Request: fold
Amino acid sequence: MPSAKLTWVEDAMFVASDTRGHTVVLDVKQEAGGSDSGVQPADLIMFSVAGCMGYDIVSILKKKRANLQRMTVEVEGERAPEHPKRYVRLKLKIRTNPEVSREDIQRSFELSRDKYCSVLATLRSPVEFDFDVGTE
Amino acid sequence: MPSAKLTWVEDAMFVASDTRGHTVVLDVKQEAGGSDSGVQPADLIMFSVAGCMGYDIVSILKKKRANLQRMTVEVEGERAPEHPKRYVRLKLKIRTNPEVSREDIQRSFELSRDKYCSVLATLRSPVEFDFDVGTE
Reply:
């Protein structure tokens, strides 16, 4: 079962750890009470879906023996104006070097979108939550 | 408008950047074709919602002048068995030091859950997507 643990450091700073020993520092900008020493929690949603689709597309292009040299994924988010300001729409712009054929990149993208990308599928459907809140 | 950019490095490794200059290395374990040099894209969903709720709860407890010294947020994810193996349920366990009153931690958590946490609200509702895919 996938799991993670976050530990509060000070102010708005947390250190997030996965089960494999990787850590990410989370923080917010000064106007929001932080010290801007790490990525904002809400930005990780964009990193997550772009990373998931990027990984799928690279994996599939490699299986197709495409001549992949470069790839970028740019994301823009549109958030609701009122609290809780949820993301209502995400726009992904995926680009490779021109030696990859239009057909290969399109087909790899479609397989990620329609079949493989767990993060995209998560964001497209409601997730259920359980909470357990208290003191040590 | 929030935005992010990911650049492919090699194999399953990407570097994700926000607009404030913070970066996160993404990668997957060796069995999945990576070199395990960074966090998996799907794990960032857990970091994101735990960080968002942790930030809200710390901010509200500070306004209440609670005696907050420690906080942890543990997350467990339940994924669907079949591709795309989306997260169907996330369980969050939130703990502070015992000097914080039960009422304060509960009320701060409820404000995050019901009013402020943008990531929780994002995960509870379907997000729309636009894609633009091609070569440079």
Observations:
- The first helix of chain B runs from residue 43 to 63.
- The two ends of chain B are 24 Å apart (CA to CA).
- Chain B touches chain A through 95 residues (CB under 8 Å).
- The first strand of chain B starts at residue 3 and ends at 10.
